[in-house]
Write the structure tokens for this entry.
Amino acid sequence: MAKLQKLPIGDASFESIRAGRCVYVDKTRHIFQLIDEGKYFFLSRPRRFGKSLTVSTIRCLFQGRKELFDGLWIAEHGQWEWKPHPVVFMDFNGISHDTQENLKQGLRRMLAQTAAYYDVISDAPLIKEQFKELILALYHKTGTHVVILIDEYDKPLIDHLGKGATALEIAKANRDILKYFLGVIKDGDVAAALRFVFITGVSKFSRVSIFSELNNLEDITMAEPYTDMLGYTQNEMETYFRPFVKRFAEKKGLSEEHIMAELARHYDGYRFSERDIRVYNPFSVLSALKKKNFKNYWFETGTPTFLVNLLKESDYPVIKIENLQLDELIFSVYDIEHLQPEALLFQTGYITIKDVKDDIYSFHYPNQEVRISFLKFLMFAYIPGNGSDRSLFLRLSAYLQQEDFDAFIETVTAIFASIPYTLESKRDEAYFHTAFFLMVSASGVNAHSEMLTCHGRIDLVMEFTDKIYIIEFKCDQSAEAGICQIRAKGYDHKFKQSGKKIILMGINFDTEKRNVADWKVV
């Protein structure tokens, strides 16, 4: 059996990947095009999506390390001039930012390390002047234009979001430092010394904050030519990973087509432009192929606590997340003082573009990994329970599949009963609806809330391979009233051509008892 290349899980060093003969999905055509067409660029992508590897690849290019690119597109077709340039590389993952002073000191140390490497002087008393002094010193010493690469610039900001008022003040202070510091790049004499500037991050904050001085910075986050510069396309999956899929299939005793379909269902679906080009999450793909198992690898490396806190603080209707429809302004208005949940959900990778029509963007969860993991995380945040009661939801999908309605309602009732009385005082229909949706979705049910029909909105639809549940919720009324509404509105008409069994369910909640009062299935 032929020996496969290594899968570079967690390795963001282009040099390490190439020297270690690991799989490298060739993105150098995109990189060449980017460098060839401009000078100042910004790119936002979710965490662990390949930003650092892209920065590392560009760094090696400008260092003139031709041997690392043997066999890649840029070496064969790119007409690249392998001339070394001085590179100022700043990785904000490695800078302390818990206080203003620590952020400033971290920036100083990073600048000093670059100055020492190139044997130039850069010791001005202020960080902005130190940065400027370094760039000009490198240019004058080498006679070659300088390259600036900044990775995860926004880490000193997003690490403090959703953690209360004190942490927010730290984020604001760090924002002001970054605005002051990065403004150097626009200075006339500095600009004349620069060859290329590339900045990455998870989030793009408004020009009036971080990038107010960098109005010439081109945001390529949603630019069509670069929508697949990070992540793996379907063609790249077929080209680079077929041997790994084969091994995976052999271990599981399944076909390669089945494994490929499951990889797509779990990890594909990210879309970053109007043009419908989808990419896989690279970290999850590499992890699944190495471990030969389907798990929520990307989600488990970092939970979205600040996002969930923001959603709760703003009383955001979480059941609407997978059916959002917004205009393009949502992609450009990010401000620390007025954080927009929809913008952050998109930037951080928890929702993606589903469709674009008449300048209206529709969003949904990109894939199974994100949908189930995020809804489960939301459920634990919105429906806090005690001990083993927190895992009861796992059985709900099986009960519905088996049509064991008594066990299903008994479990739902137990979950509601486990919620401490003091935690949620507002138990109206909206709360019960949200809680119920999160429970069944987190258990793996393909659930759709507030589905629109020509006769109105269905509270909840739960779809299985052989059956469809149509549910109407009531508060302090009766389950029979829910069934009557489903029939009166003809909610089931939409699904009669599906060939699936249609089950109607009415559920009535008692706001005083704070639980299910009665239910009916027909």
Observations:
- The mean pLDDT is 91.
- The chain has 20 helices and 15 strands.
- The radius of gyration is 26 Å.
- The first helix runs from residue 14 to 19.
